Amino acid sequence: xxxxxxxxxxxxxxxxxxxxxxxxxxxxxxxxxxxxxxxxxxxxxxxxxxxxxxxxxxxxxxxxxxxxxxxxxxxxxxxxxxxxxxxxxxxxxxxxxxxxxxxxxxxxxxxxxxxxxxxxxxxxxxxxxxxxxxxxxxxxxxxxxxxxxxxxxxxxxxxxxxxxxxxxxxxxxxxxxxxxxxxxxxxxxxxxxxxxxxxxxxxxxxxxxxxxxxxxxxxxxxxxxxxxxxxxxxxxxxxxxxxxxxxxxxxxxxxxxxxxxxxxxxxxxxxxxxxxxxxxxxxxxxxxxxxxxxxxxxxxxxxxxxxxxxxxxxxxxxxxxxxxxxxxxxxxxxxxxxxxxxxxxxxxxxxxxxxxxxxxxxxxxxxxxxxxxxxxxxxxxxxxxxxxxxxxxxxxxxxxxxxxxxxxxxxxxxxxxxxxxxxxxxxxxxxxxxxxxxxxxxxxxxxxxxxxxxxxxxxxxxxxxxxxxxxxxxxxxxxxxxxxxxxxxxxxxxxxxxxxxxxxxxxxxxxxxxxxxxxxxxxxxxxxxxxxxxxxxxxxxxxxxxxxxxxxxxxxxxxxxxxxxxxxxxxxxxxxxxxxxxxxxxxxxxxxxxxxxxxxxxxxxxxxxxxxxxxxxxxxxxxxxxxxxxxxxxxxxxxxxxxxxxxxxxxxxxxxxxxxxxxxxxxxxxxxxxxxxxxxxxxxxxxxxxxxxxxxxxxxxxxxxxxxxxxxxxxxxxxxxxxxxxxxxxxxxxxxxxxxxxxxxxxxxxxxxxxxxxxxxxxxxxxxxxxxxxxxxxxxxxxxxxxxxxxxxxxxxxx
Length: 799
Prior knowledge:
Helix content is 42%, strand content 18%. It is of the alpha/beta class.
């Protein structure tokens, strides 16, 4: 396993020695869990922010973490340009087309091969990136890539509580008014209040911008608060507001804003089969008002999605914004500010990490900066910028040496960043790694169109083949409805000629389905049943109540009703009408005689209950290793996403425990290595001192022998003996050094072996975590006495 390829760790680059101005051979690894406390990347133009941001996104994708990225400059679309073979042919379409294309492509391919090799990244890592996550670029207001139907629906988010709907309506109203040219709208202005009230009361499935124009003119309510509408906002003045929105609708090309992929964060972050996605929302082609609309509505949708997730300490998703200038100002309150501040305060509890990049830290709200746990600091433009950054770091940590940080920030070269992480004991200076994606600069609309053409075709194929649901509370209780034999006997529905509606005897409940499908010439009778069913499995802790609705045709056979030929339906009892809907057919097919007898329905109700008990088990999917069970109505895709997140959380927890278990041994052996190295240093110092002393003794002896009157005096002999002992001690000191060095090598070998064992166990965890999680299908029978039949009735239905 490559040294930097460790579970839950992002390879950002290598340490940098600023005084020596050189890169060190020590990888800088960032714990993905630290990103849950958010990050900000600050640096002037040319400092390398985009490269660092793309590197972070690549690492998240490789680790299976989905990313939503807002791209104001058009650089992040380079994530589409990943070439595992690194052949010149891959680079050729993206280099200048000036007659030397082939040579330029050769140079770029060679440059990228050398760059990746320099940073110890093999081409197969690019293949891992492409296999790990889908990359899609969204272009709201343009068909250059995947259009985003930002204004295709103005309905409140489904399933949201009253407080969330109110927040969504307020922020959306501010965004729409900003698009209409109202600028920084006060939250309690009458324009904002009117639009927010209209959005809060929206229930029409066709709620869009044209609908909003009509609602401004003729709202569905007569008062706002306790004041009547005409007093609060007269019709004449509302007309002016409606004209503003109508001018937007009438502008050339605005229809693109109403079509395309829906603004659904879950669908943007995950493919239909549950794979993570890097979703890049490019806004480089928009004007300032349109950019604000896109960013604010995206942030509102992201906030709503985040609040629906379960709590976790692992990184679930990453939201990245390449340039946040103007969207989070310190004084003004644009529509983007409130949802972004709320995300910074609340998203960490749900495992969502926010990463913001900017050139100008003085233009960011101070409260936002105080909510970020990691700072990536590149070269800054002004002393004012440095002072703002240092003030922000001081507020997070009192142990940081401000003077040292100031000096470091003043001398940073390109692509070198100072990382201050509140989860680490000290700041780290590093140079960003070579990106896996080809950084060729902002992409034009035509280049985006060319790069995403294949992805669009692939997406169309995925949409055409989306899987069935695991369970549906009122639509499908199994992955597929029970098949109806094509030639089953006695199942031919009645085919009597169209006639006026028959008069039914008292005691028979008669209902009408909503009109659906193509215009019909007559109503056909069916038997409709609805029940509330409780499914329970004490062993697995399952206790769920599900609504079941089904219809079965009447036949002219001896057995006019057979529930085994029933089909489940999503239409609930409250959606059925007691009178025929307007615009429906006038004719009715006559039902068979048993359907006109009230006594028949009591027997059919018992048959319906028995059919549910026999043929409608609750089918759920169970992942035994994670002890995770799908929910009724949960799609296979959504369950797979939950499984992947649970597997990541289990993996992070297991790696954390493993590292904690090895930590005492690593610390002990590290201390042993350090002590052995200190011992070598002491022995070397003692040996050097002994050599000097021996040399002095020998010199003194020789001098005495040459200068004294008696060549062999006693004192001369004594000095000679002392010198000889000194030489012997010097030899012994040399042996001690060799022994100490051997102890160092032994301690280092022990430490290396321990680290190898740790790496091997981490690799085993990685192999287990990357393997498909086994699942099995559970068939949960209804609880005894748990079938509550609420309705069995004759219902009229069109084809």
